[in-house]
Structures are given as C-alpha cells and as structure tokens.
UniProtKB/TrEMBL annotation:
Classification via InterPro entries: ABC_Transporter_SBP, ABC_transptr_periplasmic_BD, Vit_B12_bind_prot
BP terms from Gene Ontology: cellular response to iron ion
Lineage, broadest ranks: unclassified sequences, metagenomes, ecological metagenomes
Keyword Signal carried by entry: yes
Domain Fe/B12 periplasmic-binding: 60-312
Family matches, as NCBIfam families: TroA_like
Protein name from the UniProt record: Unannotated protein
This protein's UniProt keywords: Signal
Length: 314
C-alpha cells in the first residue's frame, strides 16, 4: 500500500504511518496582522474543551490534520492558521501557506518554529503532547468520529477553541440539512442494493460499523464486507470474495492514490462480468473527500445518493 493510500485510511485507523519527516519554517505573518484579519469572537475566554484550556483566542494555530484544517477554514478561523500538515490540500488558502509539517511523524522543532498558541492533531503518534506541553503549547486531539453526531460535536469544539462558536453551529446545522436532503432525495429500491467500497487497489474496504459505512447505512445499502473479518471494520478482501459477492455498485475511493478508474476495474481478472461493471455502476469518488470527516461529508453523501439513483434506474 503506498504512502498516499495510507494517509487516507489512517484518517480513520490511525494505525498506519507515513515515512516523510515533517519540516517547516518560521512564519512571517505577525500576530498583529492576524488579529486584524479576525473580525471578532463569539467565544469568551478562558475556555476549556476536553483537556485543553485557552486563556485567550488563539491567533497562531497549527493544524496537523487535513480534516481539522477544512473545519477551521469553514468556520472562519482560517486567518488564525499559520501552518498545516503535508496532506492539508484543501481549501486553497491552506495550500497557499506553503507548509508541509507531518502529522504522522511530528517534528517538534519545525512546529515550535511557528510559535503556535494551539496545535490540533488527529492523534498523538508518540510523545507530541508531552513535548508541546514542555514548551507551554496546548495540543487538542480531534479524534476520528464514530458517527455523524461526533462530527458535529468536533466542529463545535473547534469553534469554541478558535472563537467561532456561532459559525461552527451554523456549519453543523448546514451539514445536517445537506445530508438529510441528499438522503431524502433517494427512493430506495424494494430490495437493498449491495455495494463494495474500495479504499485501495489491494482491496481494503470498510464494514457497516465503520464511520464511512454508517454513511451508506443512511440509504439502506448492503455491504459485502460486513462478514469478511470479525472485529475488523477495515478488512482486506480477496478478489475472489468480491467477485463471488457480485456487488450492484462499486465505490472507488482510490482514484488519486492508486489511479483506479471504471476502466481499470473492468480490466481486472474476472471482474468484467460483475453486475456493477456490466451496468456501469462504478462510482468514482474523490479520495480526499471520502477519507475525511469534515464539511465535505455532504458531498460524499450526495455522491452515494447519486450512485444509488443511477443504479436503481436500470
């Protein structure tokens, strides 16, 4: 499995690691400039969220999580972000920062070089909290969610920490509405459609118990990976098992990392006769959107709905 594939899956597993060491440089953005760009705060300080207490609104935030980066910009805290990790490629403003820190193998010197007043990560790969704590830098761990409610809660937590409570509440409400509308727009067939969700081209998938799988559950789909491996919500399937299951829809979440397309799937040995291939029901997803639990979840749910509608019409 290549490094980019690992980065996507690790957003939910946190057991995989990348091999690129983090690097960075001191930012030229002054606190005065940042403060001028922040229009105001809907949060009073001090504020405590989990184990983190902030005495003032943070003006030099570092995000080591692509999902957290998207959330911060979506709630209006982008002007406070001074550095992001190497996989934070959305929105464009985050890319424009030109920073390539590592969230998998954090470099404490590179991080501290930006003089942050808050660091956000999706997990602690080792002693990050201890090292940052020794420097007086607070670390907030934005864990992978177990369900949609925990996604909305995390957005609200980042809103409290960054001083954008109102915007965070509005974003969470907007996402809920968008997801509800996407689901209600789909007329589910009498017999549930089966699907195969591909994380990479070595056939790693997800079960209905995973966070991603729960999004598919909203539509009543049947997951062919559910009985693949007891206790593992991210099993590796065999090609034979997939062919034998003959899914109605195939969802590809490995189009960027592994260059998979409807054509490459159809060309696989024994796959040409699958129901999904014959009917053209191969949904090509954006790896980044599919592997993060940020604001663009609405896009993922909508894409699932569109694929179901297409498959149901045939």
């Amino acid at each position: 499995m290549n490094k980019l594939t690992k980065a996507g899956i690790a957003g939910f597993l946190f057991a995989l690691t990348a091999t690129i060491a983090g690097c960075g440089s001191s930012s030229s953005t002054s606190d005065t400039t940042i403060a001028a760009e922040v229009s105001g705060t809907s949060q009073t300080y001090p504020v405590t969220v989990g184990d983190v207490t902030l005495n003032a609104q943070p003006m030099r935030i570092i995000s080591l999580s692509p999902t957290s980066t998207e959330m911060l910009y979506a709630i209006g805290a982008g002007a406070q972000v001074v550095a992001v990790d190497e996989y934070s490629n959305y929105p464009a403003e985050a890319v424009a920062l030109g920073t390539t820190l590592s969230g998998f193998e954090p470099n404490i010197e590179a991080i501290s070089g930006f003089t942050p007043d808050l660091v956000i990560a999706s997990y602690d790969p080792g002693s990050l909290a201890q090292q940052l704590g020794a420097l007086g830098i607070p670390l907030f761990i934005a864990n992978a969610p177990t369900n949609l409610d925990s996604v909305y809660e995390q957005i609200q937590q980042l809103g409290m920490l960054s001083g954008h409570v109102t915007e965070a509440d509005q974003l969470a409400a907007s996402m809920q509405t968008g997801i509800d509308e996407a689901v209600s727009a789909v007329v589910a067939p009498a017999t549930p459609l089966s699907y195969y969700y591909e994380l990479d081209n070595t056939y790693y998938s997800v079960t209905s118990n995973s966070f991603i799988g729960q999004l598919f559950n909203l539509f009543g789909l049947r997951n062919i990976a559910d009985n693949a491996e007891a206790g593992n919500d991210y099993p590796q399937l065999s090609a034979e098992a997939i062919v034998s299951s003959n899914p109605d829809i195939i969802f590809l979440a490995d189009t960027k990392c592994c260059a998979q397309t409807a054509e490459t799937v159809a060309a696989r040995d024994g796959w040409g006769g699958l129901a999904a291939v014959v009917a053209g029901n191969i949904a090509v997803l954006d790896d980044d959107v599919a592997s993060r639990w940020g604001p663009r979840i609405v896009e993922l749910v909508a894409a699932i709905g569109e694929a179901i509608t297409k498959a149901s019409a045939k």
